[in-house]
């Protein structure tokens, strides 16, 4: 199992998450502007990107497990970094270089995931705020409508 294959997978997953982040940020702007038609199209694009992220995640899990078995450690980021760095003294620093590449790719992925989670929280809050506002407006319109019905409404007959 090549460390480089796992590094490439981590970086590709980070790139896809960054693409998803851009789409979620665009969704946020569309929700704010009320452009429902463009929002529907963007939801489809977001779903497509999400499927790519999920596929990349599955690949990352498989490669991580294989590398952990090879290095005889837990399939966790810190354990893999430690195992890779621990092998650095035995082969002229190649493993240390692999550990540094793996650490950098892992940190890049972690940053991308954190940024996406933050943007999703903002979007979620905005959607909840819109839902509360819509419910308030609907309630007010129903109250006004009921008031017209009780008072006999308006008679437009000639």
CATH class: Mainly Alpha
Shape: elongated
Tell how many strands the DSSP assignment holds: 0
Instruction: Sketch the major β-sheet.
Output: none
User: How many helix segments?
Assistant: 4
Q: Whole-number average pLDDT?
A: 87
The helical percent reads over 70%
Summary of the model, kept short:
By secondary structure, the chain is mainly α. The chain is built from 4 helices and no strands.
Please describe what this structure looks like:
The model has no long low-confidence stretch (mean pLDDT 87). The protein is 85% helix and 0% strand. The N and C termini lie far apart (87 Å). The protein has a single domain, classed as Methane Monooxygenase Hydroxylase, Chain G, domain 1. It has helices spanning 3-33, 36-71, 77-86, 94-150.
Topology:
Blueprint (H helix, E strand, L loop, with lengths): L2 H31 L2 H36 L5 H10 L7 H57 L8
Helix pairs in contact: 1-2, 1-4, 2-3, 3-4
């Amino acid at each position: 199992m090549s460390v480089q294959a796992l590094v490439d997978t981590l970086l590709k997953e980070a790139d896809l998450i960054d693409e998803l982040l851009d789409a979620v940020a665009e969704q946020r702007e569309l929700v704010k502007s009320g452009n429902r038609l463009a929002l529907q199209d963007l939801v489809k694009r977001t779903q497509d990107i999400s499927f790519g992220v999920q596929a990349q995640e599955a690949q990352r899990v498989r490669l991580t497990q294989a590398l952990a078995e090879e290095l005889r450690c837990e399939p966790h980021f810190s354990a893999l970094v430690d195992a890779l760095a621990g092998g650095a003294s035995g082969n002229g620093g190649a493993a240390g270089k692999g550990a540094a590449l793996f650490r950098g790719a892992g940190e890049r992925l972690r940053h991308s995931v954190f940024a996406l989670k933050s943007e999703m929280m903002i979007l979620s809050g905005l959607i909840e705020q819109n839902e509360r506002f819509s419910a308030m407006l609907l309630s007010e319109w129903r109250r006004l409508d009921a008031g017209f019905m009780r008072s006999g409404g308006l008679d437009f007959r000639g």
